[in-house]
Design goal:
By secondary structure, the chain is α/β, with parallel strands linked by helices. The protein contains 16 helices and 15 strands. Helices cover about 35% and strands about 25% of the residues. The strands form three sheets. Strands 1, 2, 3, 4, 6, 7, 8, 9 and 11 form a nine-stranded mixed β-sheet that branches. A four-stranded mixed β-sheet has the order 12-15-13-14. The longest helix is centred in the C-terminal third of the chain and has 15 residues.
């Protein structure tokens, strides 16, 4: 593996290419081993990893203080409109899978929660724990920042309705702060990334809309789409990637880079899992990247932005693998064969652009905030 890593990543020395990666502090804190690995693999890249201030998300990318922005939430439509006004071309790259975990004090008797109950908790509609096992303690609500991925995930549960935190909610900026506070208060409840250390608290298993069986967040349950509240960790760049930026992106999305990301607690996206049935080993070893394609709820139509993105992608791609799904919030009773239709639409569109489609598949929801497909691709030599 070390020989493979060296063959893939070690480059000749020269003038360092400066690259700034900015992201949430509690995520970057867990990337220490990844950061050291990147230094070893790419000594010619002068990569600076900097946390952005609480409450700031896409501003560093827009203002130019970040070449790559790491985000636990997708860019929203208003931010895309702003990017267009600033004449910025924003590109999205899926880095890893994550999940949202509801944490309580170890003494809290609540056995499980449904997603509807989680929404009610964070709306302030549930004020006491007496309905969850007999505790008469009041609920102390630890809420995420409105600009955070955790807050956006809560908003998604509202199914289009306006989501508002109650006045009693206490706002916390990092998952680590939520965990330490919950560990000290039997009445507290918080929402954190499943990638953080949660040994001092208890993680409440969640029930999705399709099953009454509660599921705890784990690498396996998130990867298989069984845990009902998954999400995606993304990288955003502005404009076309230059040579240095392309090297770093390929490094992070390769099997070796993903192995380091797994050490930080996230669920890796090993590209060769999707390709192992169709691509030879020498192609898989080059690594692959993935482009997320979003559809409107209940739709299998590609919008203009998706068509433009895929058209640009096709110019440097030799072959692709398509994994399509319905979103967590799309009703399975009415969605029917929606994932299959989405896969066929993508296959026909890419084939029309001259791209070889090695295979397609449709799966259960992989994350709570996406309804669409992943297009895995291998670039031309």
């Amino acid at each position: 593996m070390r020989l493979l890593a060296a063959a893939l990543f070690l480059q000749t020395s020269g003038t360092p290419i400066p690259i700034t990666v900015r992201g949430p502090a509690d995520v970057l804190d867990r990337f220490s081993e990844l950061i050291e690995a990147v230094k070893h693999w790419h000594p010619q890249l002068g990569v600076a990893w900097a946390a952005y201030e609480e409450g700031i998300s896409f501003a560093p990318l827009f203002e130019g203080s970040a070449d790559i922005l790491l985000s636990s939430r997708p860019i929203d439509p208003r931010e895309r409109v702003l990017a267009k006004k600033l004449s910025l071309e924003i590109h999205e790259h899926v880095l890893a899978l994550d999940a949202l975990a509801v944490v309580v004090h170890p003494d809290n008797p609540v056995e499980s929660l449904s997603l509807d109950q989680v929404e009610s908790l964070f709306r302030g509609k549930i004020v006491g724990w007496y309905g969850f096992g007999g505790s008469d303690r009041p609920v102390r609500l630890l809420a995420p920042l409105p600009s955070s991925g955790e807050y956006q995930a809560l908003s998604e549960l509202a199914s289009g309705a306006d989501f508002r935190l109650p006045a009693s909610a206490e706002i916390f900026g990092t998952s680590a702060a939520v965990v330490s506070t919950v560990a000290a208060d039997p009445g507290a409840v918080g929402l954190v990334s499943a990638s953080v250390d949660r040994e001092s608290v208890r993680t409440v298993p969640l029930k999705g809309a399709e099953s009454d069986a509660p599921v705890a967040p784990s690498a396996d349950s998130v990867e298989r789409g069984e845990y009902p509240w998954g999400r995606v960790l993304r990288l955003y760049t502005r404009g076309s990637a230059d040579e240095g930026l392309e090297r770093l992106l390929n490094c992070l999305l390769s099997s070796e880079g993903q192995a380091e990301i797994a050490k930080a607690g996230f669920v890796p996206l090993f590209a060769d899992r999707a390709f192992q049935r169709s691509l030879p080993a020498r192609e898989r070893s080059r690594g692959a990247t993935v482009t997320a394609v979003s559809f409107r709820r209940g739709s299998d139509r590609l919008d203009r932005e998706a068509r433009e993105s895929l058209t640009a992608l096709s110019r440097s791609v030799s072959e692709v693998w398509i994994t399509a799904r319905r979103g967590l919030l799309e009703d399975p009773s009415t969605a029917g064969d929606l994932p299959h239709r989405r896969a066929r639409v993508l296959e026909e569109f890419l084939a029309g652009l001259g791209v070889t489609v090695s295979g397609t598949e449709s799966t259960a929801p992989a994350s709570g905030d996406l309804g669409g497909a992943d297009v895995w691709w291998v670039a031309r030599r």
